[in-house]
């Protein structure tokens, strides 16, 4: 059952610092595991960030000692009786909540950073991987816990994990459900860095990204993610088309002018 305290407190917190929005998953008593309400509040926070023209980068973190423990299994009805299979089916929840969340993060108009303050398990690991970059606390870990409950990686993990780690490592983590500590996650390339204060480090990184040409960063993300589905010749054409589109932006002309004039560029994200 839902913790009564969670009804009074928002499941997602939103704040801004300069050009960076900070979204905090706020169910620490449940290691920030996802309920349907948390998904809805997260979508509202993402809408808020996208609607704010001043926001040019975003950080996602968790309250308390965990980043996100995946789905809150208490939302499923496992009580014996008629319709048990239908009531316990995870498919509708994935379709209606987790997949929209993953797609929103992957397609956001700004670069995103995950500040992984603790365990990121199941769809919580997917959430971190859906961000463009990730910084984790030394004690944080990433767990593909699905095999231990008879399911498969979801919320994008079966794709993201392979792209980040390669098939052998991704397969090993998914089949065994073993914990991947933060230091090893950095060594393997799952995350960008390990920091004692991951939120502060994540915000600093996001501030750096926010000062860069936003449209170019998002276009780079798109090219790199979509490149795995193209041939080299197709990717060369995609690069050409993207460069041509960006060649019409303010930040392109500003960047070149700043380079030629040997001064810092003043990008607007336009």
Major beta sheet, strand line-up: 1-2-3-5-7-10
Counting DSSP H or I runs of 4 or more residues, the number of helices is 12
Number of beta strands: 10
Structural class: alpha/beta
What's the overall geometry?
Answer: globular
- Gap between N and C termini, in Å? 46 Å
State the low-pLDDT regions, or none: 1-7
Largest sheet report: 6 strands, mixed
Order of helices and strands: HEEHEEHHEEHEEHHEHEHHHH
Q: Strand portion, in percent? A: 15-25%
| Relative helix content | 40-55%
Radius of gyration: 20 Å
- pLDDT averaged residue by residue: 92
Explain this structure to me?
- A hairpin with a 2-residue loop joins strand 1 and strand 2.
- The N terminus is likely disordered.
- Helix content is 48%, strand content 15%.
- By secondary structure, the protein is of the alpha/beta class.
- Helix 4 runs parallel beside helix 5, helix 6 crosses helix 7 and helix 10 runs antiparallel to helix 11.
- It is built from twelve helices and ten strands.
- It is globular and about 70 Å long.
- 39% of the residues are buried.
Brief synopsis:
The protein has 270 residues and is an alpha/beta fold.
Secondary structure elements and pairings:
Layout: H1 4-8, E1 12-17, E2 20-25, H2 36-51, E3 57-62, E4 66-68, H3 84-88, H4 91-106, E5 112-116, E6 119-121, H5 123-130, E7 133-136, E8 141-143, H6 157-165, H7 167-176, E9 179-181, H8 182-188, E10 193-194, H9 198-210, H10 214-226, H11 232-246, H12 250-261
Helix pairs in contact: 2-4, 4-5, 6-7, 10-11
């Amino acid at each position: 059952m839902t913790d009564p305290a969670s009804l009074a407190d928002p499941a997602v917190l939103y704040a801004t610092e300069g050009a960076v929005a900070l979204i905090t998953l706020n169910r620490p008593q449940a290691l920030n595991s996802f309920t349907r309400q948390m998904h809805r509040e997260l979508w509202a926070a993402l809408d808020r960030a996208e609607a704010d023209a001043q926001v040019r980068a975003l950080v996602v973190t968790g309250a308390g000692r965990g980043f996100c423990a995946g789905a809150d299994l208490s939302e499923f009805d496992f009580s014996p009786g008629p319709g048990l299979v239908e009531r316990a089916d995870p498919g509708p929840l994935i379709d209606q909540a987790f997949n929209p969340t993953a797609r929103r993060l992957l397609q956001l108009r700004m670069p995103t950073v995950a500040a992984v303050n603790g365990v990121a398990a199941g769809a919580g690991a997917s959430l971190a991987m859906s961000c463009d970059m990730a910084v984790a606390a030394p004690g944080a870990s990433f767990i593909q816990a699905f095999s231990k409950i008879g399911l498969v990686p979801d919320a994008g993990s079966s794709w993201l994990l392979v792209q980040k780690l390669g098939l052998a490592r991704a397969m090993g983590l998914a089949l065994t459900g073993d914990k991947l500590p933060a230091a090893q996650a950095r060594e393997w390339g799952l995350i960008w860095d390990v920091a004692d204060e991951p939120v502060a480090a994540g915000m600093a990184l996001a501030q750096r990204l926010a000062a860069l040409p936003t449209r170019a960063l998002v276009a780079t993300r798109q090219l790199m993610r979509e490149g795995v589905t193209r041939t080299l010749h197709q990717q060369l054409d995609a690069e050409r088309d993207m460069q041509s589109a960006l060649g019409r932006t303010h930040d392109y002309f500003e960047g070149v002018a700043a380079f030629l004039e040997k001064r810092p560029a003043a990008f607007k994200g336009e």
